[in-house]
Design a protein that fits this description.
By secondary structure, the chain is mostly helical. It has helices at residues 8-61, 79-82, 121-203; strands at residues 85-95, 98-108. The protein has one domain: Helix Hairpins, CATH 1.10.287. It has three helices and two strands, in the order ααββα. The protein is rod-shaped.
Length: 204
């Protein structure tokens, strides 16, 4: 614990510090709780989307054998050439003071293909793979949200611990030490005053 001046001014300063710390601590604790709740919600959302993506993948597996034709198509007609992501749309929001990306959608570049020269399954395959890409994009953004929120939660938790376990107990102890010292000084001054008075009485 750092040494402090044992004066009335220092006592006032430490009391002001204690008021500030005890006023700030509940705000930090509330922020910590908010972050924990939001992280749980975002994690649940990410798990739900991952489950939907897995379900979609298993649905596709039911007829994916037909994709074997993909390698037989001309290069410009293959699925990987017909699905091109144009833009991942997002904006930035604020949760408990943390700036996070928010998913707005995915847009694809429209690539024309000849309906007469491509297999019938191409249309459905493109739609299903677009859905997969959308789920992937949203999951990635949710994962980034969790990273940012968890970083802020660690910082906030450290601050809560600093105030709860260090700053507030330390300041209380300093106030106690100053009060004891000032009380002893006051008692000593009273004793000295009485002794001086008795000496003056004897002299007179």
């Amino acid at each position: 614990m750092p040494s402090v001046k044992l004066t009335k001014n220092e006592l006032k300063k430490q009391k002001d510090n204690l008021k500030r710390f005890t006023r700030y601590l509940p705000t930090l604790q509330l922020k910590k709780q908010q972050l924990q709740m939001v992280i749980r919600d975002v994690t649940r959302r990410m798990e739900d989307l991952t489950e939907r993506k897995d379900q979609l993948y298993h649905e596709i597996l039911a007829w994916i054998a037909v994709f074997g034709e993909n390698s037989l198509l001309a290069k410009e007609l293959r699925l990987e050439k017909l699905i091109v992501i144009d833009e991942i749309r997002r904006h930035f929001g604020n949760i408990a003071g943390v700036g996070i990306p928010v998913y707005d959608g995915l847009s694809f570049r429209e690539l024309p293909y000849n309906l007469q020269t491509t297999p019938l399954w191409i249309d459905r395959a493109i739609e299903e793979l677009k859905k997969m890409a959308e789920l992937d994009a949203e999951i990635d953004i949710l994962r980034r949200q969790i990273e940012l929120l968890e970083h802020e939660l660690r910082t906030t938790s450290q601050r809560v611990n600093l105030f709860e376990k260090v700053k507030i107990p330390e300041t209380k102890e300093q106030i106690r030490s100053i009060r004891i010292y000032l009380g002893d000084q006051q008692t000593a001054a009273v004793v000295r005053g009485k002794i001086s008075k008795k000496k003056l009485e004897k002299v007179s």
